[in-house]
Design brief:
There is one protein chain. By secondary structure, this protein is an alpha+beta fold. 52% of the residues lie in helices and 8% in strands. The chain is built from 27 helices and 13 strands. It has a 4-stranded mixed sheet with strand order 1-5-9-10. A 3-stranded antiparallel sheet has the order 3-7-6, with no helix packed on it. Helix 4 runs antiparallel to helix 5, helix 10 crosses helix 12 and helix 15 packs across helix 16. The longest helix has 24 residues. The protein is globular, with a radius of gyration of 28 Å.
């Protein structure tokens, strides 16, 4: 049975971020996400969500706050027989528990185009919304047969117990657990990632200080030599090259080693080597001595980044799709198979409602508290041998000048907890630390990070690789013990909506105003292209994934602006291959632009790595 919820457009961020709507009194109890809800005038005084069996039309008068009427249509089979639904009058009900509003079971309607445009602009930059393009949101409710909304007198009902905090933390942990499965690698691949990161940073330093390149070469030579020794692409190409060189020299009765030795005596082997590599078409990385200009180093950096991205993608393709196997929920408790220490820490975080703010405010106290909870779940004799490691970690947190070695224990669970405590305050810092420490399996650490963040506060960007409807459905089933309701709605093709002019945009202040102005481009128009041949033009989540590869904030902002400009001007009939080729030409032209500031910004953008990422993702 379909139900309809009349609500305010001011709640759109709130609803899409938490993927739910609840009675008003639930919101102040939250520890993450929005802690208030805007109630339409007709329902004030009712501490419940008002549902209608029919679509209704209503108006608001609070336009000064950009408060517009918004109608949610949804379907969930459990509501009709729920003890939390209370009839008010014919076709009108009050629901006193949380309603799950997923991309698969709801649609959202506005009643005019202006409200639609302004409301979407307000939510566009909220990166805590995980599935912004999967929700069906329409500028008009003209496809519905609307009835007038009558005011409902205040009334009270017994409320269900709010479980939003527990659900939010369990949900965050489950998504982060799958993300950890996605990022699992081998020790060799973890080392390759760290090495490429070091090379990237080193080359960036060389480009920025090219007058001192000779003094920076020694360390660079060591890094490049080590990378060549372990890079699968380089090893495969080297093997093929050596085989051909052996065969070619044998044709003239020569031994390959003797041939190379003779050319070395004439100081010509390096020149002949590069000539043969180019002539035979083997893609081998250059020798360090061959790099003489900033562009040489820039091209090498992008090539290495692209190779690592490609190697990681190929490794992941050979793995099974990440699942929740090993992650279990029993009531309000979680359990990770084979990880008793992580399980104890995870449930302590959930039970105490710990947040990232508390971690930042009192890292030392929270560290002690978590380890006390972990200790209570382990025999004393087994715990004693870990005390030196834990004391060293706490001492380091209290005084950063004191040394701490993450690898000073052989217990992987303790390492994961220590990594979480030291770096979980931001996704970027956490992933950088995982790379620097060559952690091949970050699953446990990420699960703790997901729990303390809570699903509502998790940033969408690091989750992009796993944000599929399959993932959503699996986690929904795990959390609520039933399959996620999936409704097949009749098709309504969204009209192409021109973005509002600057004077129509909501007033903002400070940095928020600047950010809104920069971001308010053509994303919605792109998504509404009805006959796009290229999935690159319709599924633009890759823009955020590509941006995450750019370490410099100004360069990242410039890249995003250029990409939006590029996409908005692509013909919708282009194929993915054509779009990627055109994009490659554009980005390459940026690196050779006459404006020095453009060239400087693009010097920190791994163009070849981004193009390799797109080819691996869209040209399978």
């Amino acid at each position: 049975m379909k139900y309809y919820i009349p609500t305010s457009s001011l709640n759109l961020d709130n609803i899409l971020q938490s993927e739910s709507i609840s009675p008003l009194s639930f919101y102040p109890q939250r520890v993450s996400g929005y802690r208030s809800l805007e109630i339409p005038t007709a329902f004030r005084g009712i501490n419940a969500t008002i549902l209608f069996d029919r679509p209704v039309e209503f108006r608001t008068v609070d336009t000064g706050r950009y408060d517009y009427p918004m109608l949610i249509e949804f379907e969930d089979p459990i509501l009709a027989d729920s003890k939390n639904i209370h009839p008010l009058s014919d076709g009108v009900h009050a629901y006193t528990d949380t309603i799950r509003l997923t991309p698969a079971n709801c649609r959202i309607f506005f009643f005019d185009e202006k409200a639609y445009k302004l409301s979407l602009i307000n939510v566009r930059d909220n990166k805590s919304i995980k599935y912004p393009s999967d929700y069906k949101i329409y500028p008009s409710a003209s496809s519905l047969q609307l009835s007038p909304l009558h005011e409902i007198p205040p009334t009270e009902f017994p409320l269900a117990e709010s479980k939003e905090n527990v659900t939010d933390k369990l949900k965050g942990a489950a998504f982060a657990y799958i993300l950890g499965q996605y990022h699992k690698s081998t020790p060799e691949l973890a080392h390759l990632k760290k090495l490429s990161r070091n090379i990237y940073d080193h080359i960036t330093g060389i480009i920025s200080n090219f007058d001192y390149v000779d003094s920076l070469r020694d360390r660079f030579n060591e890094l490049l030599k080590e990378f060549k020794a372990i890079d699968p692409t380089e090893k495969a190409n080297r093997k093929d090259f050596d085989s051909r060189l052996t065969a070619e020299t044998a044709r003239f009765g020569l031994d390959k080693k003797q041939f190379i030795a003779i050319l070395n005596e004439w100081d010509s082997w390096k020149i002949q080597y590069r000539l043969l590599v180019n002539k035979w078409g083997y893609h081998l990385l250059p020798l360090a001595s061959e790099l003489t200009t900033p562009q040489d180093f820039l091209s090498l950096r992008d090539e290495i980044t692209g190779r690592v991205v490609s190697t990681i993608e190929n490794y992941r393709k050979a793995l099974p799709i990440p699942t929740l196997d090993g992650f279990h929920i029993k009531g309000t408790m979680a359990e990770i198979t084979g990880m008793p220490l992580i399980t104890a820490a995870l449930n302590h975080i959930i039970d105490r409602r710990y947040t990232l703010s508390q971690l930042l405010a009192d890292r030392s106290g929270l560290c002690r508290d978590i380890f006390e909870a972990v200790k209570a779940n382990n025999p004393q004799e087994a715990w004693d041998r870990h005390l030196i490691y834990i004391d060293s970690l706490i001492a380091h947190i209290d005084n950063l000048s004191l040394p701490f070695s993450l690898d000073a224990t052989d217990n992987p669970e303790l390492k994961s907890i220590a990594t979480f405590i030291l770096r979980a305050h931001s996704a970027g810092d956490l992933f950088a630390y995982i790379t620097a420490k060559e952690i091949a399996d970050p699953t446990a650490t990420l699960t703790l990070w997901g729990a303390i963040s809570g699903y509502c506060e998790l940033n969408r960007e690091p989750l992009i690789p796993i944000l599929t409807m399959q993932t959503y459905g699996d986690i929904f089933t795990l959390l609520f013990g039933r399959e996620m309701p999936v409704v097949k709605w009749p098709e309504i093709r969204p009209a192409k909506i021109a973005l509002p002019s600057p004077e129509e945009k909501p007033a903002q202040t400070g940095q928020t105003k600047q950010r809104k102005r920069k971001k308010a481009k053509t994303v919605e128009a792109i998504r509404s292209l009805p006959f796009a041949s290229s999935s690159l033009l319709t599924d633009i989540s890759w823009v955020e994934k590509a941006s995450s590869m750019i370490p410099d904030e100004k360069s990242r902002s410039q890249f995003e602006n250029d990409i939006r400009w590029f996409i908005s001007r692509c013909e919708p009939t282009l194929t993915d291959s054509e779009v990627i080729d055109n994009l490659s030409k554009l980005l390459d032209s940026k690196r050779r632009a006459p404006q020095k500031w453009v060239v400087k910004l693009y010097s920190s953008i791994p163009v070849e790595g981004i193009i390799a990422l797109l080819r691996s993702q869209f040209l399978k």
